[in-house]
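User: I'm writing a tutorial on reading structure tokens. Could you give me a worked example: one chain, its sequence, then its tokens, then a sentence or two explaining what the tokens reveal?
Assistant: Sure. Here is the example chain.
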Amino acid sequence: LPGKGRAAGLDSSHTALCLPQDLLLAAAFVSDAQYNRNIPFKTSPEAVRLYHLYNHWMMRIATYFFIFLNLSLALFEEPAVYPLPFLATSVLEVLCLLVFLGRLTHFAKVTLHNVFWKDTKNICIMVAILLSLTDLAIYGVLRMYDVRSIRWSRIVRPIFLINFAESRQIRRAFRSIRNTLPEITYVFLLFMFSLLMFSLMALKLFGERNLQTAEGLPYFRNYLEIVFDLYVLVTTANSPDVMMPAFDFSSWYTLFFIAFVIINTYIFMSLFLAVVYNNYKKHLKNEIRKLAYMKRRKMIEAFNLLKEEEGEQFVVREARWKQLVKLVAPDTSSSHRELLLCISDDEQKGFVDKKSFVQLADLLNIQVVTLRVRRHPLARWVPALYGSAPSQLLRRVVRHRAFVWTYDAIILINAIFIALDEESPYISYAEWVFLSLYIIEILLKVYTYEPREFFGWKFVWSLVSTVLTLKYNSQQILDIVFILRVLRLIRIVDSIQRFQVIMNTLINIVPTMLTFGGLTLVVYCVFAIIGMELFHGKIQYFPANSNAPHALECGNPALKDSLFARGKYCKNNFNNFASSFIVLMELTVVNQWHDILSVQPAKLYFIAFHIVMVIIIVNIFVSFILEAFFVEYSLEKSEVETAIERKIQELGMGVQEDELQYEQLLDNMESAEHELEGEGGTKPQSKGLVFKIASKRYRTVDALLQRMFEAEIPLEDEGLSFEEILNLSPTSAVPRSPSSESTA
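And here are its predicted structure tokens:
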């Protein structure tokens, strides 16, 4: 079962066998809606239990482990970074393929047969397994007869990372690329036409003037060389070097290069981004709408399984609702579940109506922090002293915002002193002054706040860093500690509202960074394997004092007096998997990337990588960041909040205003964020609980987008059926009501 509590998930998997079938099926629907899974599974009792097992966190982690193990085998296979015997790598690869086959078989057991065999990703996995086993067998037989062959099946290994059901985000990114390609193609053709025309003009302008480069080579006399040099100029990697021979001959020739850069670097590259962003946003909106309708349909199916008649409406009884929530989210505490029930059944009628039930998946996705209020230990040990007037005044000062501002100013001054001359004795003395001030801060906060609840790792780090500074009188340790403390300046930046938009965007894109990291890994793996097969052994690295033949030419006489050899780029090679990744990373950055092109045929390979990685994938990533910022910015400007979040906030206000309401649930509960430590004898809170919504900066951008699009769907609209939603094309918008199905 999905959920945050792994141990709880294991226990609930065993107890699920004893629960009614309709409750298990409803839990599967709600769980799918919560995590946006679109798997059309069978509804038989055995299939539902297998489906719960399929989605268990241990199964998902095991799948990812073997996927990355399969990809990492390239580090140990020839050409290897860390060589292992062929038998060892073969056994590991066969083990990975068996796990993939088992996972695919498990998936086939829980899905409908017609859906399984129509699903392209399942066919891709089966073909990849068959090709890998065939290639492994052929390679092993040829190796027995000392015949060298190519492991051509290694290029299909990234297919497993893309096509398993767990990798739906990566598949969405690939769909964005696929849907964007037609529009990009037209822009790319115009760009190539411009590049070829400028290359032709450059040949006529400079080809017959006998100009030479700084290395004494002919300047712009070969048309294909001109095309490549101008393509590199689009990336600005060879600017202004490529222009200098013409510039030295006549200053008027700079107009040619200025016009080229404006048209191709600024206009066409911006057009690429505009086209990618426009298509990405359009297809993302359609996919998110599809997810929203699928979530609504699954929640309605779950409601129909558990509903009972109450007067003129159908409802879900409180007991059944609690069983369902405990099964879907076994890690939630009982008090948290009671809080969710108070929100769903706000009138305390003993049942949940359809409108509130449909919102359960969103309710479970909102991170609600439950804190138990504890009194300060000093309030228990010396209540008279801790509750005295001077003690209360001191604690009010520490809790005041001016105290925070004061130490922010101290940290800023500390940063200025770190940048000053360390040889001055005054600077050295000042470091100990700052250390004393930090110790005073820690002691005051320990005195004011209950350490276990308020500080956590922040308190532990402050204490450990101070102890290290006092124990080891080492300048290096002092520097590290002070630099880490200066990082607290981030808090000052984060306190400014407009900076919060940027900070929230940066934090929100972290989960999606994993998606684009997986996308980049796939592209890198494919190009690295191709590069190893094409260029392995053509370049060798030798230490600086090596006397080996052709050491100065990187082991290749063809590189004599080349920019590659003179620049000492010999480690930029495709002799193993790790070196290949480093070269591809350098090409992604595009700085001086043309200098590492050692042989002429390699130019086509590297241009292809630049087009795929930099022009397409990087622009897709930039498009996502733009969309994330726009969503975050609009959220900050309009303070958009869902009805569920408002209900939680209203419940907190209601409890604060009327302490008797929900007394059995929230005994002595306080909603103030900074009142966790208690007030000595003035405000007894020994059994209190605090509920608050976690910061909205920890929501994913997909969740924010989906919430925006769900607002367009009327609550009474049940949407399309599962089959109709699944059959929608990515380019077709989801109709808003069943009556418009024919237009889809």
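What the tokens reveal: Residues 1-18, 636-641, 653-688, 729-744 have pLDDT under 50 and may be disordered. The radius of gyration is 32 Å.
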